[in-house]
Amino acid sequence: MEHLVRLTWLEKVAAPQGDDSGLRLTDLGCALLRDAETEEESDEDISVVVLGREDPLAYPILVGQFAAAGAGLLVDPYLKLADLHTIVVSTQLTRLLVSRKAPNRGVVASMEAYLDSQSLARPIEVRSSSKLHDRVLIADDGDVLTVGTSLNGIGKTTMVMTPIPSPARESLRSEYERLWSEATLVGPSPAEEEADEEPDSGSSPEAGEPSGGGDKA
Questions:
Q1: Among residues 130, 133, 131, 78, which one has the least CA distance to residue 106?
Q2: What residue numbers bound the domain in which 81 lies?
Q3: Which residue, of 39, 46, 73, 94, has the fewest CB within 10 Å?
């Protein structure tokens, strides 16, 4: 519930009697609830996902949600190296955006080495930015979902994964595409195309052959 308070969907209020405080919907929370109640069709792929603390299935369920996003973009400022590996082998996400702030420099360095490995299971691009705060999943079909907890925090606290309705969805997608375009490449390193180019046989002699044009003595 603390996550919903931070999202300003709920607010704490004093109980009518006693010292305990209670919770009530904010105006934003009421609007989202009305939107959910008027939706005629239910789609499991875009429904709110709640993963409880100490739930042994929380991690695989979240990875499954990432896999359902197809070739999308995951924004997770403090993603760990082990979680990057899980994403590579268990999802089809093609872009990851992580933090490049000082506390995360060691992790970013380890990701750089991992992404340049010849044994990398499949292509995936990681970039880093110092302007990240929230965790967001942008699916390849355009859906945008907030992710309440980093992968490394799953099972330690309750996590809520929430789809963002239009027009906020389009605004968030545009903002994170901008951050992606401005971010620093972590890996893999760009391929050196020049190293693969064959020399022009008419412009330079073969190794071991004389460079002169006259006949040999």
A1: 78
A2: 46-189
A3: 39
CATH number at residue 104: 3.30.870.10
pLDDT tens sequence across 139-194: 999 999 999 888 878 878 888 899 999 999 999 999 999 999 999 999 998 864 33
DSSP E strand stretches across 41-175:
49-51, 73-75, 95-99, 125-129, 136-138, 144-147, 159-163
- CA–CA dist 135, 147 (Å, integer): 5
How long a stretch of residues is the chain? 217
For 51, counting Cβ atoms within 10 Å of its Cβ (0-12 exposed, 13-18 middle, 19+ buried), the class is buried
Query: How far, CA to CA in Å, does 35 sit from each of 144, 199, 202?
Result: 16, 63, 70
- 170 in the same domain as 103: yes
Taking each helix axis from N to C end, the angle separating 81-90 and 58-68, rounded to the nearest 10 degrees, works out to 50
